[in-house]
Design a protein that fits this description.
heterodimer, A: 2 domains, five-stranded mixed sheet, four-stranded mixed sheet, B: mainly alpha, 14 helices
Chain lengths: 425, 309
Amino acid sequence: MSEKKGLSRREFLKASGAAAAVAAAPKLYVPPLINRRRQNTVVMRQQPFAWDAINAVLPEFEEATGLTVLLEPGVSSGVDHLTEVTTAYAAGDSPWDVVSDSDESGPVLARAGWLMPLDDVIPQETWDDFPPIMLDALDLWHRYDGATYRIPHEFAIAYFFYRKDIFDERGLQVPTTWEEMLEVGLQLTDRDNGVYATQDSLTRNGLMFVYCAYLACQTNGQIFEFDDGTAMALHLLYNMMHTLKIFPETALNDVYDQQNENYMNDKVMFMRQWPYFQSVAEANTAWYNPDKVAIAVPPAGRPGPGSWWGGWGWTIPTFAPNPDGAKELIKFITSPEIVPRLAEGQSWFNMPRTSILNYFEGKPNPVLEAMGMYAAAGVPRPRPFHARGAEAQTVVDDIASLYLTKQETLLNALKLGKERMADLG
Amino acid sequence: MAINIGPPQAEVRRAQGFALSFNQRRYLAAALLLLPVILLRLFTSFYPFAQTILLAFQEYNPAFPPREYVGLQNFYKLSTDMVVTSSVEFTLIFVFGSTLFQVVLGILVASLLNAKFRLRNLARTINLIPWAIPMVVAAVGWRWLFDGNYGMIPDLLSRIGIEYDWLIDPTGARIAVLIVSIWKSTPFVAVTLLAGLQGVPEELYEAAKVDGANALQSFWRITIPLIMPLMVTIGMYMLVWQLAVFDLPFTMTAGGPGFATSVLAYKIYQEITTLNYGYASAISVVMFGIVGAIGALGLIVFRRVQLSL
């Protein structure tokens, strides 16, 4: 009789059942680890580039409240941010207690009922610290149905950075109008060596919108209406790219990192860029000197110089596991005592709040100095608003891209843009 | 007098009436064992499918209530939405174009790999490298290869006097996306077809040689007919599989320039991220219809090929 080899069917079933039970046991019994953790911790979603600044102030908060703050990485694109958080919120869940929310996401999430009202969180002395320009924007961007859902922590206005060293060397004046910009641009462009007067990032994840809206606000154009001002802005961009060739066509596929690299590789002589570029340039110690990253008032279009501003702000998701801890944290990091220290740690947190301006009085801060210069010149314009912000931006991305890649004429592109905006309502 | 210590006869009969036969017990056990899987499958497949159908007839965006029934309005809207029509156009170009080249090149590569030469196993392994690379990684790599500033391909072409920005020109961008798809999936098709080639009896080629057939004639008259069912199968698989392509255009071109390389799955993604669940569902239903139609076409072709052999 041959000896039986291997497992019998009964033994196999027993072994499989036991293995399945062992594997399933942890799933069937979920120990309340998460809940216990949530009672003592606050999870904050924030872009990693700002972690150092936040970590510098957190020990005080943790000592005072007994709470532990965990930082979770967020993304830099407002549209991408919206994509990530809606997945959780739509499922009635949130891994985060405090979230840094973008202009694209904040109004939409508030309308969907996925953010918690914060009116009882912020004391009056904090609101008194904000400048009128930021308070005026609250209703549009941070409030819905009478309640405040987002507390701004950034004042992002795009600056006109230029190579003062090269302008001085070649005896050129900083352009103050579009016409001068084109003239100077022709003198600075050296296509054979890959040098262009200017460039921006024109990819279709919202960056195209940023630049087109920047140009449109210099014509008093309403970008979401595809009006005459928008037409002038798109036409200027087309001319710079295709007619005068002082703006590289390849920018249609460039993101900010590439744009910044081109500037710091001496391939671009002036550009629009967000304040964070100041920190990027300073970090490139082998290349940096202040004359390479000078800031000027942007060249003026028809009505005058302009640059729109917007920014990110703190929110608490409706489904936050620790809403009380989240409220305490927001109250702490928006207080007049803490915001100057955040601004010192990362230029992203620079705002024209009284406490920040007072703190930096007499101290060098190129971004705040430029902010003052822009305010004096009347440059800041409100960010173009649309209730369906991300969708409206996508329409601008699409239409501008169609025109700039010569798939549509300007007239047709504008007509298409108006039709698609009408569909959005 | 005998003492009855067992259950009353009536109870025994009743119990026997409820007793299951051996086969019934087997079926019951099988059903109970299968039930969790069936429930899981219903929950993860049927429920989302039914919900998608339902949503397709509704205007639903949680940020902009109310949620209401709108009949065929979403379908009418997508028929006039130029991004959707352009996406359908490029999706079909992408799917049929890349599948055609993948199958044709796959046969050629498979024939090469089926030939006898030294280091054949090494060649077969190397062939699979593109397929083993994650699509997102490949897309990023190729994006840089095609990049107008730093890309190797425009640089090499410029050395022979050809200046061309692949990812800026709509046609160039479409061709570039197709090239990457073909490069990525041809090895998989080739390996599948290689399995078919290895099943073709050597005697057939020897007989054809005796009859005076050259290599090309043998290929057309013997190889192709014998692996045709496999070609149709893999062709249909690639067609249906690639209809849901998203990662390649998303990473490589973000659907641009304009929306020249936008595909249906990308449009669905865009609508979902802006919470337009109703409209996204309507596009998904259309996509399901296209997949179903191509799948049905594939089955018909497959049966005809089988019948003709």
